[in-house]
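Long-time lurker. I teach an intro course on protein structure, and each term I like to show students one example going from raw sequence to a predicted 3D structure in token notation. This year I'd like something fresh instead of my usual example. Would anyone be willing to generate the tokens for the chain below so I can use it in lecture? Attribution to the forum is fine with me.
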Amino acid sequence: MQDLFRKNLRRTVMRYINLSTILVYRLVSTKVKSRFPTYKEMVEARLILPHEVDRLLTADAKTPHESTWTPILWAVKLLQRARTEGKIKMEPAIYANLISSIDYIESSNRKILNYGWINFPLAYTQVATLSVFCYFVAALFGRQYLIPREVNQDNDSFPNLNISYSNTEPFNNHTPDFFFPVFTYVELLSYMGWIKVAETLLNPFGDDDEDFQVNYMIDRNLQVSYLIVDEAEEELEMAEDPFLEAGIAIPTDLPSYVNKVSSNKYSKMYHMY
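-- Reply from a regular --
Happy to contribute to a lecture. Here you go:
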């Protein structure tokens, strides 16, 4: 009976911690918001129970601010009550470390919320994009080479080349002509690439393919956390050390299988031919 209570306590604490993180993601990610638009979908996903929804709604009614911290508070209260009632035995240092770890998760959730609340000003993105486009429009005209007239062309220096060339002012700085603007093209790729990267980083919790896979993180964290608390119930048997069984006191360098795999591959290719 005691083991069942401890297992249920661990799973409930993990569910509350994951629930708090999901509530945070719902406020900053459109993917998670569309996946869990209301508490009803979260109840169907067994992330929260109906009576816990009533608690959240009560907390939401008391304040205009978000209440994503509420499941973290539930988890801490469950641990504190179980330790006070003697249902779990935990040293003070271990208990303090556990509470600090839960507080770290809450601090991380708070940082995600801060990133979602503080957005880049719209004028900043518009000015940056407009400046880049204006720069390249000016470069399109300003970096064109002047074509000298027939009277100013020098046909004696390069008689076998079919290009315009002149030694007189102001054409001496504009000839020979570049048919392909290499450096301007490199600048265009660099600046436009930076603009596209900046646009992607404006909302990393969006719906684009380059954004964070938040739904994957939710599923992974929930499954791994439950797996961890369930594995804590498994009894481990200590086996004999394999190095001592082989008579090795201090292990040497581990064998490398890279060369072995390469040699096997080339030997197969040799036999094929």
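Some talking points for your students: The chain has eleven helices and no strands. The mean pLDDT is 82.
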